[in-house]
Amino acid sequence: MRLFETALCVALICAGAAQASCNSGPDWCTDDPRIPATLKEKKERLSKEYPNYLVALLDLGVQCVARINQSPDAFTIIEVFSNGDWQTVPWDADAERISKTRLSDGTISHFWMVNARRAFACDGQPKYDERSDYVTGEDVNADLAIRCNDPNC
Q1: Of residues 19 and 73, which shows the higher confidence score?
Q2: For the chain, is the Cβ count within 10 Å smaller at the N or the C terminus?
Q3: Number of domains in the chain
Q4: 115-126 in b/e burial notation, b at 16+ Cβ within 10 A?
Q5: What are φ and ψ of residue 75, in 5° steps?
Q6: Is residue 68 one of the residues assigned to a domain?
Q7: What pLDDT is stored for residue 19 in this prediction?
Q8: Any domain includes 131
Q9: Which residues pair with 77 in a beta bridge?
Q10: 15 domain-assigned
Q11: For 14, what's the count of Cα atoms within 13 Å in the CB-facing half-sphere?
Q12: How far from 34 is each of 57, 65, 120, CA to CA, in Å?
C-alpha cells in the first residue's frame, strides 16, 4: 500500500507542477501551458472562415484559456457616426465593403473591426473599462481592434 500511496503522491505533485498557478483558477492564469495549443486551435478554426488580418486580433493582449474559450467565434464591425452614435454589424466581406463605402461618403466617421469589443480580464488584469485604451463613448478597447479612418484601411 505504501508504494501505491507514494506513486499517487508523486503523480499529484507532477500534475500540480504542470499546471499554471494564479489566484483565479487555471483557466484564468496567464502562464497556463495549454494557452499556445488552445489559441492555435481557435485561430486555425476561424481562419477557415475569416481573413488573416481579423484572426490576428486573437494574438493581441494578455492570453488565458478562459479568454480564448469565451471570446466569440466571429468578428464584428462597429460603425461610428460623427455625432458619436454607433451601431454594430456582424463582419463579412460585404459588410466591410459597405462600411468602407459609408466611410467614403461621410455616413460614418470611422469603424472598428473586433473579435470582442471589450478586453477580457485574465488573472491580475484590469477590467476592460479600467484600461488606458478603453474608448468610453464607443465601448471598445482600441488596442484589441482594427480602427479604419479611411476606406483604404
Answers
A1: 73
A2: N
A3: 1
A4: bbbebbbbbebe
A5: -125, 160
A6: yes
A7: 54
A8: yes
A9: 89, 113
A10: no
A11: 6
A12: 19, 7, 17
> In what helix (H) or strand (E) does residue 9 lie, and over which residues does it extend?
helix 2-18
Indicate the burial class of 56 (C-beta count within 10 angstroms; 0-12, 13-18, 19 or more). Answer: middle
Assess whether pLDDT exceeds 60 at residue 3. Answer: no
Give the span between the Cα atoms of 34 and 42, in whole angstroms. 12
Query: In the predicted model, is pLDDT for residue 106 greater than 50?
Result: yes
Q: Cell numbers for 43, please give them.
A: 485561430
* Whole-number Å distance between alpha carbons of 39 and 103: 33
pTM for this predicted structure? 0.84
Mean pLDDT across the stretch 35-57?
A: 98
Using DSSP's 3-state secondary structure scheme, residue 148 falls into strand
- Given a cut of 60, whether residue 1 has pLDDT beyond it is no
What is the pLDDT, as a whole number, of residue 25? 87
Helix, strand, coil distribution of the chain in percent, nearest 5: 45, 15, 40
Q: Does residue 95 sit within a domain? A: yes
**Mean of the pLDDT values across residues 120-128?**
96
